[in-house]
Amino acid sequence: MITDRIKNTIENHRMLIPKDRVLIGLSGGADSSALTLVLWELREKLQLTLYALYIDHCLRPKETPQEIEHCQRLCRHLNIELYVEAIDVRGYCIKEGLSTQEGARELRYKCLADKAKELLCSKVALGHTAEDQTETVFMRIVRGTGVSGLAGIPPIRGMFIRPLIDVCRTEVEDYVISMVRSLKIDLSVPYIIESSNLKRDYLRNKIRLFLLPELKKANPSLVKTVSRLTEIVRDEEDYFNLLVTKTLMRLISRKGDGFIELFLTPMEAIDRPILRRVLRRAVDETTGLRGISFINIEEMVGLIKSGSTGARIYIGREIRVIKGYSTLIITSKRPQAIRQQTVDRPQDLVIKEAGLVLSLSEHELTTSVDYGDGKTIAVVDAAKVGYPLIIRGRQRGDLFYPLGLAKKKKLQDFFVDQKVPRDERDTVPLVTYRGEIVWVVGYRVDDRYKVDKETKRVLKFILKPLRN
C-alpha cells in the first residue's frame, strides 16, 4: 500500500514529528495532489496541522485559473486551508541573469519558506517522486557532476521534506485516481497535467520523454536502480561531509558576498578526492558564485596543484579563480578601478581599491639608499619629479618610457607584455607628475625619471599590502 510505504519513508528519514505544522507545495499535478492526500490520511495519527500553497509563476496565464480552481476544490473537500501567491519569474530572471527554470526554482523555494514562516510551519512538503530523482541524476551527469551529484535530491534538507521520493510516478497517479474516486471529490480531472511538462526544449523533459524510455528498455527497474544508487551515495556523502566541514574550517582566510579566499599551502597537500569536495562546498556556501560545474572544479584543482602564482581561470563572464602567493581567491566581484588621489608631501597613502599602502619618503642620495626592484620599491630623481603627484588608474592613450627600454611604449602593450590579466589592469595604480607616468606601481619606473650621476636627492616609494 502506497500510504504505508510513504509512512516508512517519513519514519526512516524522521521527516515529521507529532503535532508538526506542515505547508504543502500544491500545483494540482499528480505528485503534489498525492502528497496532499497522503498527508491528509496521516494527519490524525501524526496530529498534523496542514496548509497548502499554490504558487503562480505568472508564466502560463491561460492555465493558472483552472489549476487554482482544481486545488481549491481538493483542499475544500479535505478541509485544508489553501493560499495562492504570485511570483514574477521573468523579471527575476532578467535581473539575476538566470534561465527560466533556475529563476522559477529559486523564487519558488523562497516563497515556500516565507509562507511557512508566516504560518509558523516547521516543515514544507514537496512532491518529488522517484522519477524526479532519476531525472535529476541524469541531468547532473549530462551537465557534468562529481560523485556528490549522484546523491540526487535529498529526502530532507532543512525544513523541506519529500515523502514521495521513493515512490514511482505511475503509483502516484494510480493512488490519486483511486483516492479521488473513493472520497468522491468533485474534480473535473483527478489531477492536472502542466503543459510545461510536455515541452521538449527543457533538458529535464528531454530526459523524461526520450532518454529514460530507451534506458528502461534495457533495465525496466531503472528508477529503482537509480534510487538505490542515490541512497548509497548519500550514506557515503554523510561521511565525507563531516571530513570536508572540518577541512574547510581550517582553510577559509576571508569570505564575503561574491568571494571566498582560501589558504593555498594546505590545499596543495590535500588529496584530489577531498580537495574537489572542499572546493565544491566552499563555492556552494558562498553567495554570488552561481554556475560552477564539476569541470570547473577540476580546473580549479589543476590550478592549485600545478598553476603558477598569478595564474587564473575564468568561469563564464563573472567568476574568476586566482592563485596568489598564499591564497586562492574565487570571486565574482568586479575589480574596483583606482580612485584618483593627490599627494603633496611625503606620506603613507592607502590605495584601497588595489589593497595597497604606498609610502613616499625623500632622501639624500647615499650609498645606503635601497634602489629596490622597481616593483615593491622604486626610487626616482627628486629634481625631475615634484608635487603634486597624482595617483590614478589607467586612461586611454597612456604612454611611458619603461626603464631600460629607452623608448616610449603604450601602457596597454606593456600590460600585455607583462601578462597583466585583463580584469586587473584597471586596478594597477599609476604615479604621475604633470600628466606623465612616473611609476607603473608594482611593475616599472619611467626611464625619464631614473636616478643618474647628476642625482642628489631622491623620492622613494615603498609598496606594502593593506592589512584589514
What do you see in this structure?
By secondary structure, this protein is α+β, with helices and mostly antiparallel strands. The chain folds into 3 domains: 217 residues, HUPs (Rossmann fold), CATH 3.40.50; 102 residues, Uridine Diphospho-n-acetylenolpyruvylglucosamine Reductase, domain 3 (2-Layer Sandwich), CATH 3.30.465; 125 residues, Phenylalanyl-trna Synthetase, Chain B, domain 3 (Phenylalanyl-tRNA Synthetase, Chain B, domain 3). It contains 13 helices and 22 strands. A 6-stranded mixed β-sheet has the order 3-2-1-4-6-5, sandwiched between helices. Strands 7-8-11-10-9 form a 5-stranded antiparallel β-sheet. It has a 5-stranded antiparallel β-sheet with strand order 12-16-19-20-21, with no helix packed on it. α2 packs across α7, α4 crosses α5 and α9 packs across α11. The longest helix has 30 residues. The N and C termini lie far apart (62 Å).
